[in-house]
Write a structure and sequence with these properties.
alpha+beta; three-stranded antiparallel sheet; binds ligand HQG
Length: 180
């Protein structure tokens, strides 16, 4: 990914997940923004985008953070929102027996006391595989991977979803379902 792509990708994450109002952009409940409006709003904030650049970033993004609508006229972030204007509707799904969450060692005491909480995001993010969880945990320090008794949670009525890119989401994970 080129430096320009990295920078534009961060800008897209910022306006499509967190602060659309910072550039006067409107997202619908499913997080979709009209690409022409996005380009116009970005331009007014002094950032030049065009359709080719946006498509290129959607295609080349390492974590498939963005998706285009079928008609190609709209774009959204597939997960990770914090803005209240978006409430993605995911189909509830039965999770595998175990899921994983990567965090930093320094958060462990608090997590074991309070369970996993979504922080600024709308959901707690979990993954089926340990390597993804390890990479996520490394972002904040020495990584620790927690195992979640996902199927047991599900049987007790906790709801799980999968974001488009395979990340598992749930509202919270009480400590009794966690093991280090
Ligand atoms: C921790 C990235 C103390 C939690 C990644 C995490 C992922 C607690 C941090 C996606 C806690 C929140 C999500 C508690 C949770 N006490 N700390 N009770 N409960 N935490 O970034 O899961 O680049 O909001 O362990 O790759 O790290 O955005 O969540 O360390 O897929 O596409 O609080 O973000 O993807 O941090 O990462 P985050 P996350 P993107």
């Amino acid at each position: 990914m080129s430096k320009q792509h990295g920078e534009v990708s961060k800008f897209l994450s910022y306006v499509l997940r967190h602060e659309p109002q910072a550039i006067g952009l409107t997202l619908d409940l499913e997080g979709w923004a009209d690409i022409d409006s996005l380009i116009a709003c970005a331009q007014q904030s002094g950032r030049s985008l065009d359709v080719a650049l946006i498509r290129n970033i959607v295609d080349s993004n390492d974590k498939k953070r963005f998706a285009l609508s079928e008609d190609g006229r709209r774009i959204r972030a597939v997960q990770g929102h914090s803005t209240d204007t978006v409430a993605l509707q995911h189909e509830p799904l039965q999770p595998p027996e175990f899921l994983h969450h990567g965090t930093a060692a320094r958060f462990l005491d608090s997590i074991m006391a309070q369970g996993l909480r979504p922080g600024e995001r709308h959901h707690v993010h979990l993954s089926a595989d340990i390597s993804t969880a390890t990479a996520v945990g490394k972002r904040y320090g020495t990584p620790v991977v927690l195992r979640i008794d996902a199927l047991r949670m599900h049987r007790q009525g906790f709801v799980f979803f999968q974001a488009d890119i395979g990340v598992w989401l749930t509202e919270r994970v009480p400590a009794e379902f966690l093991s280090a």
